[in-house]
């Protein structure tokens, strides 16, 4: 049964809801659809699933782009209603005829909806009955085919068994088989080894059986042949090769170069390192980036090229007339060339293929049926719609002002905890130090927590950053439980009055369940204020896999009914990608989390905010 059907404008004004379907929906499926699907340019999908305590809903929708209307139907997921798509199309058609922008109440549409609903349900019932009447006939045909096939198989089986029996007897006596072809084929399919060992079948069976056995011998005996080759080429153990340092002249060999500072057992250096905060200057986080507006009005050349053949087909006069008068309504066929060019352009900028396709589907859904304005091309209309969509996706929908959150936590007399997570080698420890440097510039006291107890040298690396920045570090060495280390670090920061605790974690692949379980435990036990995913700007399609699986594992392995997922993204190595900035779009689209920091160099100052206009401009260049 249909739970709810409502009509509202793109501005959020509800025009009509079905009073007969006055069922109280559990949770807020409509709000979630708008927030998670329509606003995030996922409207090209066929449906949306919403899970609430005690209920699971499926939501389907359609648009009237020219009038700016949205039609949404909600029903229980278990029902699989077949008439919903047709009902939405009928409601869309009938309501658009009576729609008036000045009206806000449409009580007279109730009777029309009842008729439309009865028609849709009747058609669905007829379709269901026709399918049920077709099933017995098809079943009888299938049974007859199965019986016939079974009798054929039985006869072939008996012939085959007689042939094999005769073949075995003849092989024992050393005679050839009389029915060479049928028996040869049977032996080739059922017992290829016997045909190979005896070698007394006809030529066709011998060739095919020999090839199969040869392959089996290779696969089985491959290790033996390798070992034989290895034995023959095994070097003498006495002459063990060792790498020697190259000597360029007769000068005496120099000692090994080691510029690391002597560290005592407690992990503290000799204190000769100068404070870097006074030398490296202002962090790029506090410098506003200026974008040149030279190419803001440029249109993609590829889109123009794809739209030229279309103009030639229609003729010069017709295309000229359409550009002046405007096209009646945009259709899917009109949008396809421009969308294909945009999709290819996004993929060349390192946007994941799946994301680029979904974006184009969403833009097509928002433009289909819309009237083309005068003196505008389809390509420029599609480009403008895509630009708006990209700006909406990349613009954070919540505050990302960490300094404000830090001061709010300080008023409650507790430290603000940030956990850095991500795969191996993306630069978590380095960028953690950059964030610490930026916080120090704003007079925020910071403590580092060395919770990467897995990788060799991780604690020493963080210890070096702490000494250079002259901030405290909490460490317990290696092979400890990172969740317990983080908890003790937060307790220590509370006693010492530190404002922020930056927790470094071990790099882990998204498929490594033991390490993902340990990370889930760390987040559940300590309940950090911010979970930052550190990802490379170099990745393409892998960005989707990493973020989606990280979120999925954190949700699946958490013991809490409301698991914590990734709150923000720190994008690293942004200075190495030139114009391949698509990873930022892929990560934000798949996770819904904003990009809070961008690492763009090796210095402590090389940390900046994501400039949305610059990214969109680069993606559509």
TrEMBL record:
Domain (SRP54-type proteins GTP-binding) spans 594-607
Respond yes or no to whether keyword Endoplasmic reticulum is given for this record. Answer: yes
Which GO terms fall under molecular function for this chain's record? GTP binding; GTPase activity; signal recognition particle binding
GO BP field: intracellular protein transport; SRP-dependent cotranslational protein targeting to membrane
Location(s), subcellular: Endoplasmic reticulum membrane
Topology in the lipid bilayer is annotated as: Peripheral membrane protein
Keywords of the record, alphabetical order, are: Endoplasmic reticulum, GTP-binding, Membrane, Nucleotide-binding, Receptor
Q: Where is this region: Disordered?
A: 124-270
- By its UniProt entry, which Pfam families does this protein fall under? SRP-alpha_N (PF04086), SRP54 (PF00448), SRP54_N (PF02881)
Query: What cellular component GO annotations does this protein have?
Result: signal recognition particle receptor complex
Keyword GTP-binding on entry: yes
Q: Which PANTHER family does the UniProt entry name for this protein?
A: SIGNAL RECOGNITION PARTICLE RECEPTOR SUBUNIT ALPHA (PTHR43134)
Q: Which family does it belong to?
A: Belongs to the GTP-binding SRP family.
Name it: SRP54-type proteins GTP-binding domain-containing protein
Organism expressing this protein natively: Gossypium lobatum
Lineage in the entry?
Eukaryota, Viridiplantae, Streptophyta, Embryophyta, Tracheophyta
């Amino acid at each position: 049964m249909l739970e709810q059907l409502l009509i509202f404008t793109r501005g959020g004004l509800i025009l009509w809801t079905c009073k007969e379907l006055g069922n109280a929906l559990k949770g807020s499926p409509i709000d979630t659809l708008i927030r998670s699907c329509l606003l995030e340019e996922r409207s090209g999908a066929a449906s949306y699933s919403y899970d609430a305590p005690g209920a699971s809903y499926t939501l389907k929708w359609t648009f009237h782009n020219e009038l700016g209307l949205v039609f949404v139907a909600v029903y229980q997921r278990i029902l699989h209603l077949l008439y919903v798509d047709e009902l939405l199309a009928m409601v869309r058609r009938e309501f658009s005829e009576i729609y008036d922008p000045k009206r806000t109440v449409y009580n007279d549409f109730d009777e029309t909806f009842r008729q439309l609903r009865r028609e849709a349900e009747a058609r669905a019932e007829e379709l269901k009955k026709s399918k049920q009447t077709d099933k017995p006939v098809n079943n009888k045909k299938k049974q007859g085919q199965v019986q016939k096939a079974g009798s054929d198989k039985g006869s072939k089986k008996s012939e085959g068994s007689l042939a094999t029996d005769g073949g075995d007897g003849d092989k024992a006596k050393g005679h050839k088989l009389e029915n060479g072809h049928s028996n040869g084929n049977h032996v080739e399919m059922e017992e290829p080894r016997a045909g190979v060992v005896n070698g007394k079948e006809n030529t066709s069976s011998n060739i095919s059986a020999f090839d199969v056995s040869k392959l089996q011998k290779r696969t089985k005996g491959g290790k033996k042949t390798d070992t034989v080759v290895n034995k023959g080429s095994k070097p003498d153990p006495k002459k063990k090769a060792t790498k020697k340092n190259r000597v360029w002249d007769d000068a005496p060999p120099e000692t090994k170069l080691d510029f690391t500072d002597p560290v005592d057992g407690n992990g503290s250096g000799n204190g000769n390192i100068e404070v870097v905060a006074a030398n490296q200057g202002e962090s790029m986080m506090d410098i506003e980036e200026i974008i040149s507006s030279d190419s803001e009005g440029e249109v993609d050349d590829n889109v123009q090229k794809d739209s030229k053949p279309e103009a030639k087909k229609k003729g010069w006069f017709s295309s000229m007339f359409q550009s002046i008068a405007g096209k009646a309504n945009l259709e899917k066929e009109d949008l396809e060339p421009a969308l294909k060019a945009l999709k290819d352009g996004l993929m060349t900028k390192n946007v994941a293929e799946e994301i680029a396709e979904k974006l184009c589907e969403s833009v097509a859904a928002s433009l289909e049926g819309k009237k083309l304005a005068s003196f505008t091309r389809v390509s420029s209309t599609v480009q403008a719609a895509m630009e708006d969509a990209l700006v909406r996706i990349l613009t954070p929908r919540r505050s990302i002002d960490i300094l404000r959150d830090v001061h709010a936590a300080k008023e409650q007399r507790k430290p603000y905890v940030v956990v850095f997570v991500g795969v191996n080698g993306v630069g978590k420890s380095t960028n953690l130090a950059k964030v610490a440097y930026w916080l120090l510039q704003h007079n925020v006291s910071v403590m580092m927590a060395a919770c990467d107890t897995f990788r060799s040298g991780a604690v020493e690396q963080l210890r070096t950053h702490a000494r250079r920045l002259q901030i405290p570090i909490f460490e317990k060495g290696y092979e400890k439980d990172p969740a317990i280390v983080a908890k003790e670090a937060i307790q220590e920061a509370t006693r010492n009055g530190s404002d922020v605790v930056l927790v470094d974690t071990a790099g882990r692949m998204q498929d490594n369940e033991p390490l993902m379980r340990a990370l889930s435990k760390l987040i559940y036990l300590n309940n950090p204020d911010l979970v930052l995913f550190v990802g490379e700007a170099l990745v393409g399609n892998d960005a989707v896999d990493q973020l989606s699986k990280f979120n999925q594992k954190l949700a699946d392995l958490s013991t809490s009914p409301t698991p914590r997922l990734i709150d923000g993204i720190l994008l690293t190595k942004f200075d190495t990608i030139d114009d391949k900035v698509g990873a930022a779009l892929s990560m934000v689209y798949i996770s819904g989390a904003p990009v809070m920091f961008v690492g763009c160099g090796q210095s402590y100052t090389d940390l900046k905010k994501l400039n949305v206009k610059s990214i969109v401009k680069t993606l559509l260049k």
